[in-house]
Amino acid sequence: MLFLTGCASGGNNNSGNPVGPLSEATSGKSRNAVSGATTETASETASATSTATSTATSTATGVSTGTSTDTATTSIEIDLGDGIKMSLIGIPSGTFIMGSQEIGAEAAERPSHLVSVASLYVGKYEVTQTQFEKVMGYNPSFFIASLAAFDIVYGDTSNNPVENVNWYDCLEFCNKLSVNQNLTPVYAISETASDPNNLNIYDPIHRLVTADWSANGYRLPTEAEWEYSCRAGTSINYYWNDICSEEEMDKYCWFNRNAGYENYKMKTHSGKPGTQPVGSKLPNAWGLYDMSGNVWEWCWDWYKTDYYKVSPQEYPRGNSSGFYRVMRGGAWYNFSVIFFRSAYRHYYYPNMRYHGLGFRVCRSK
Length: 365
Fold this sequence. Notes:
The protein is an alpha+beta fold. The chain has five helices and 18 strands. The strands form six sheets. Strands 1-5-6-9-18-13 form a six-stranded antiparallel beta sheet. The N terminus is likely disordered.
């Protein structure tokens, strides 16, 4: 039964190098094995709501993002068992301006270009530690109650985003979630074949992964789907405003100034440095939380700096090969405001894990 209810940048850093783990936490990998964690068949609810049409025009450049029209704007909630649920927001199909031509925009964000995205469901929140552990049977996170991260003892982190996951971990989660929800998995992940499109000699996994885009299961968003969902009908720098202040950022995202190790004591709303409970800041206009900050989020695509020069308008899915996979959104430890811009692109080795990198799931309608 389907439940529907009404609902309303990774890329180059300044040095050109990918953002990596902070030195204080490079030894913080831990996996808490939990035996017997099973997932029950999904219980989903449904009810149609009114037609949603959104049109946004940029206050900065004067160009329109295009229109987004769908017959129903909906959300779904799935039951993972043991009272653990996951919510997804229905995102309408539409065409928008991807990238940026703003002064100071990164080369990887240029040229801005029209992109069309099909309707889909996107995770309302980043995948939490509880959800990941329920589906996978272990919790890989650095920020857990039993670990004294940064010499600080953490309490309940079950509702914090899962982190310390690599790109392959995310695909395995999506496939297991699909099977447990009686859906068709999107990904075929070979245990033996090496991916000829993976050009990264530092990736010892190198597993061949193919995607069946017609499957109805859960998956990672493409980079275009991620930016479209993040912007939520806007074409400004941040989904809350065109010009960013620290005070405004504090309302919408977790970043160095309110969750970083050096600064958390100055903010009463952040009890500990590091990741924070999902959904504790304001959402974007489509009801998605933590699209900026908390943890970087893996996307499907291979990263290529100049990909936007050749990207198709219709449903782009990234370069055909590469060294890195795309990640988006910025994390709790990032200080510069550029990392939290909707257009900002970033990347990392697909086999690498660290304590500022997580994900959210999506599903085609």
